[in-house]
């Protein structure tokens, strides 16, 4: 009898531990509400005909980045239609990537604790770098800054850069 009760007790304790870890991870994920701005392209965009292609890439890969962050990391991406309308309206009036903290105020207004500023610096038509910055919306403290070089201006190249960024952010914990 002794030998049967002990393994059952150990098994029950293990199940409870697993449940508590899962619950803690779920609660932790919801602590990282994040406003993710659209990707901004900087640097060389002098290639004729790139303007329309750039707009399409910004729309497509900004949404792809948000979806990947939501699905694969601890970030909860702000995506409420009303909140995103506020962001779009603010972006019409000023460059949210260079507004001296207005992006943090906007993040707080939509209920986000963090703001992510993604940008792609184009050294040339074929050499680019995806930059990711995560800032605490309240204090303005820069929590993470990382760059991912990629070659080519194809959808596949952009997807690969985002995939590497997501891989880095999957287990990252803000302080």
From TrEMBL:
Signal peptide location: 1-24
Keywords in alphabetical order, please.
Signal
The protein's matches in InterPro entries, at most eight in alphabetical order, are given as: DUF3280
Superkingdom per UniProt: Bacteria
* Name listed for the protein in its UniProt record: DUF2380 domain-containing protein
Q: Which organism is it from?
A: Methylophaga lonarensis MPL
